[in-house]
Amino acid sequence: MNNPRLDAILALNTTAAEGAWAALMALGKTGKVKLVGCDQEADLMAKVRVGDIDSVIVENTYGMGSRAIRLLAALKRGEAVPDRIELKPVLVDRTNIDQPDIQRILSMNWRVSR
């Protein structure tokens, strides 16, 4: 971590992100080295809010579940459905974390909303 050219770290899970954050804190490099995490975890989101973690790549689990239910209903009605569907991950940072669409993705409330 003392590489002066290091300017970013990508942590592929919560444990790696927490470990990288702890190392950056110990070295006084939070904010100087961008840390990008993966996983929708409350502690990571809190660190995004204060700027200790630059951003977190999250899955749209609400969208996945909603899409799955609609596809299952279509199959039951005998309709054709695609073989493959891709939902792009979302990058959450300080500029968008409080936007309603991001909060919906981060929420564990999967009730139907209209």
Textual characterization of the structure:
The chain is α/β, with parallel strands linked by helices and 114 residues long. It has a domain at 8-60 and 88-106: Response regulator (Rossmann fold), CATH 3.40.50. Helices cover 40% and strands 14% of the residues. The protein contains 4 helices and 4 strands. A 4-stranded mixed β-sheet has the order 1-2-3-4. Helix 2 (42-50) links the parallel strand 2 (34-38) and strand 3. The longest helix is centred in the middle third of the chain and has 16 residues, at 61-76. The N and C termini lie far apart (48 Å).
Tell me the β content.
5-15%
Count of helical regions? 4
CATH topology of the domain at 8-60 and 88-106, which one?
Answer: Rossmann fold
Shape: elongated
Spatial separation of the terminal alpha carbons: 48 Å
Assigned CATH architecture of the domain at 8-60 and 88-106 = 3-Layer(aba) Sandwich
CATH class of the domain at 8-60 and 88-106: Alpha Beta
